[in-house]
Amino acid sequence: MALRVDPGLDFSLIPRFAICHCDMISVRETSQRRGAYGGRTRLDNRARISGQHLGPILHEASHAGIDVDDVLAGLGHSSLRDETSRATARMLLVDFFRIEGEVARRMDDLTAHLSERKLTYETGAFVTKQMNQSSTLNEALQNLAQYFNMMHGERYNTVRTTDRTTTLIIDDTEFPYTMRDDPDMVHFVGECVLIKVQCLLDSFSAGLADAALRRVSIKRPQLEERPDHLEFWSAPVAFGQSHYELCFDRDLAHERMPISSSIDLSSEGVFSRVIAYLEHRTPSAAQPSFKALTLDLIRNGVTQQDVVAHRLSTSVATLRRRLEEEGTSFRELTNEHFLEEATSLLKRGYSVAQASEALNYSDVRAFNRAFKRWKGETPAKYAQRFATSAQRA
Asked: Is the pTM here over 0.90, yes or no?
């Protein structure tokens, strides 16, 4: 994810209709119209994503040894396993990001290998924690830009403020896209980054980001037929620009952010927050299994069965019954999650003690017993066996 936030907006780059739109709507009028930062009451149901854009993501996942069919089936999208069906499919944003997020998680790469420079999946939780400590929209933008720059090792992102605007600019000119030879896909990825950033900002600010947004800039040339996913935006969209930008009203960007109470976004991962936000606005048309929904919550730190049931708007008894019907249990899913985490840490070179500490075990002996119960061998032996096979490869 490449991000940059701008303080001095060049109004020569803005179409006249966009400037007029910003001038005509005062801060007070905007607040009143949106119900004091209530945010949009719904996303336009025309905001959809072509199934064709799944192709490169699924290809990278398959190349990395991910069972793509299992990913799609688990999320209620078995029909998308067929390339012909994907070509004509139109997906809701939340369904697309749910698939992309699961691929990213299994690959342990927040970019889902759409970048040649990998970001471990857990870096998303780190960034959202920093954003969650922000008191204003401007501060959230600064944190977003700073920490993604730090993780990418490049200054892709900056925030610049004028007397009227605070603008997030994403300069991806030198970004290492894996599909750089596919201009349409590059544009699509950049546009999806903007959508995810806006979802994050609006979820943290209880609708303030949506109320403050004045203009969106994208690099894609103006087309006769506007891509459906761009219907997400309620603000004017400027095509053919040199950078990706989210332009916000300066005064609103510096107001103290209200605390969101209308949606539970306690999970910290980037994808989990974006998905929860979009699901709240436009519920998914697909029906992921209870196993998939429960695992998603567990993977994002919700490990109490009663809390999971509440998040899924059901009772503990119903949750147990539904999981049993799907051939599993809450305990099994919790164990599955910790086994995934443990093996991932050991494969990445963590020592047994480091993995035990990262997973919050009381001591190494308890971790050893649990791991051996799950895998039939000690974590030390597993790590040694993996290292040996990796050296042979």
From this structure: no
